[in-house]
Design brief:
It is built from 11 helices and no strands. By secondary structure, it is an all-alpha fold. Helix 4 runs antiparallel to helix 5, helix 4 packs across helix 6 and helix 5 packs across helix 11. The termini are far apart.
Length: about 230
């Protein structure tokens, strides 16, 4: 291995170690990360950590992108194992929920309250839209197969705003498919967050996985997919 490759490997390994320690801090301190605290846990001078991440916000961005990609990968893998659109819709939803339950602090980072003073850069947009694009592609496929019946078109300015977005998915896709994608995505996020952040603890004890699937099937049915 050349000296340059060795340095790159060491840097990559150190970068991952910093992020791993930062994720542990998410569990105790939330998104209130401190590079000094991370450096202390690593036994490094804080100046050394700044050679890998120039600021707290840069480290947060790396953690956010990783989290979005992890949940996106989980949804993609689960959906790929299903042939029919409804199966893909449900499999993706369950994969997102399973990932959130296994990584609650990372879920809170990307779908919880905004981090005070943090402005997400453009780099986060692609990873952040992976799950919603997967859901949109699933409904789009169902529409193309004739599995979603025609209905009254959406009117007014909302339809005008959705039309160009629909065309980016598939030519001729009606705006209501995109509207149903958005509604389904927010149903998914709300259901998971309600469970993860304790709202269901105030309710009658239920089969939480079953209740989640009920909500995802209801969102699919609203879109016309059953």
């Amino acid at each position: 291995m050349s000296a340059a490759n060795l340095r790159a490997r060491v840097r990559a390994e150190m970068t991952e170690e910093i992020k791993n320690v930062a994720r542990r801090h998410l569990a105790t301190d939330g998104a209130n990360l401190s590079l000094r605290a991370v450096a202390r846990d690593l036994g490094m001078a804080s100046s050394a950590v700044y050679r890998y991440f120039a600021s707290r916000d840069e480290l947060l961005t790396a953690l956010i992108i990783d989290a979005y990609n992890e949940v996106g990968d989980a949804a993609d893998r689960a959906a790929a194992a299903e042939e029919m659109p409804l199966g893909r819709w449900l499999a993706a939803g369950h994969a997102v929920r399973d990932w959130a339950l296994a990584n609650p602090h990372q879920w809170a980072l990307i779908y919880g309250s905004p981090v005070p003073g943090y402005q997400a850069p453009q780099d986060t947009i692609g990873p952040a839209t992976r799950v919603i694009l997967l859901l949109g592609a699933t409904l789009g496929d169902a529409y193309q197969r004739g599995l979603i019946p025609a209905r009254e078109p959406i009117s007014a300015s909302f339809a005008q705003e959705l039309a160009p977005i629909a065309e980016t998915f598939q030519a001729g896709m009606p705006p209501h498919v995109i509207a149903d994608t958005l509604a389904g995505f927010f149903q998914l996020c709300g259901a998971i967050s309600a469970e993860l952040f304790g709202q269901l603890n105030k309710s009658v004890d239920v089969d939480r996985r079953g209740f989640f699937e009920y909500q995802m099937r209801a969102a699919a049915a609203t879109a016309g997919l059953s």
